[in-house]
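Good day; I would like, with your permission, to put a structural problem before you. What I wish to show you is a protein chain and, alongside it, a tokenised description of its three-dimensional fold. Thank you for your consideration; the sequence and its tokens are set out here:
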Amino acid sequence: MKRLTGSATRYASLGLITGLLLTACQNRPPPTPPAPKVGVAPKAPPAPPVVVTSADTIDDYKIQVATQILAANAPITFSGRLQPLLPAIVVVDISINRDGELTKVEVKRSRDSEASRIALAAVKRVDKPFPKPAKLMHWGHKTLDFSETFLFNNQYHFQLRSLAGPQS
């Protein structure tokens, strides 16, 4: 092994110290979070409990019905701000009798057959009666008829227009 001279030793020591200082001062990027799994939508928060009270307006009643639909379909709903361009929008007509039972649900407007199928199934999935709409029914009518709009994201999860905030 060859012995270093005085100036060579100083240069080697200086190089070693410089390298250590540069390593210690190096800015390391923050660790990157794991990439989200493709095709997996964020889990929807649990739907609020259904509070059945007498509705004074059709809008109040639609909110009660929409809350029940969301509660029965929590795994395929999403919450939060709507994206600027929704891939599917489905309008369904709903008929509910005096006892709160669903008598008819049908697609009124849609351009997406899969979204239509999901919307119809979502309304039919509600297993208990809806609130009784007696106050809102016109004299002699057997059902209360109204529309609800299903707003779908790219994963075919939905929000209901009666409960959704403004669109971006």
Notes: Helices lie at 6-25, 58-72, 113-124. The longest strand covers residues 88-97. DSSP finds three helices and four strands in the chain.
